[in-house]
Write a structure and sequence with these properties.
By secondary structure, this protein is of the alpha+beta class. The chain has two domains: 107 residues, no CATH class; 210 residues, Beta Barrel (Porin), CATH 2.40.160.40. The protein is built from five helices and twelve strands. β2 and β3 form a beta hairpin. α3 packs antiparallel against α4.
Length: 324
Amino acid sequence: MIACLTVLKTTAAQIASIAAHDGASDTVALPAGVAAIIDAALASGDTAGIDAVARFARQAHPQAADAIDQRISTWRNTSGLVALAAGPVLSKTAPDDPVQPQTFLTALAPLPLRWTGEGEIGAFTSSGNAPGIGFVGAVKLVIEGRNWRVNSLARVDYQETASVVTRDQYRVSAEPNYKFSPRGYVFGLGQYEKDRFQGFESRYSMSGGLGYSIFAEPDAKVNVKAGPAWRRTTANNGEQETILAGLASVDVNVKLAPSLHFTQDASAYVDANGSTLYTLAALDTKLLGKLKARFSYMVQHETAPEPGRVATDATSRFTLVYGF
């Protein structure tokens, strides 16, 4: 009798051990040390490094392979911008489970702001209302969130001839936009201009509308947008004009080679009294690190210029650009 009880106890212990092991195959904690190494690789953003770390982690801890894969998949689904604050993955999610808890939690977490920019300095030569050679400087800043972005730009062209200012042009703009679909977005645009050699002391423009990404590939991007606009112009003689207009524009960004980019911004303000047509084409080539050289050509045409002014100004610029 005692022998039978002993056999039964031993068999029950073995069955419990096997059941516990089988259950653990679906619920395996990711070791803290392994999680820390994987998180450090994810934070670097180096795809090759992440793949290498994941491969060795799976070899060292095959029982946690599912947890490792899910942790990396979660980072990729959120573009690597959301911290894995939910901690290690503790259980294997069933294939037919429509909601993965960690992905859901990280999707609700706010994305940190991302910002990029560039500074530009160089020389220009122009024709039109203020022909000659002068100095140009510009600063561009882009701030991005999950579905929104703000582009801002400030540019100045300045020229003196025989200690007399012959060109003094300023342009400052800010453009927020919000994406409501992978390709569609709404935008707003505020702009200030000053160019007394073109006939006005100040010109304010406000507009908004819809935009659409015709191409959104890594090496080729084309965006178009259009909407109503409001403009107020103060001429050199103090006269003011306020008028409603329409705005249409297209932005092109094409990577021609690993170190060669082409961009073009073209826009048209159209109102009952006249139109402003503007285009800026630029070719960038990488020099060293974040430093690049840029050759650009700008044309601005007024269909109804101020009295005594020519309709078209053209400016060629050669500048050095540093990204930050």
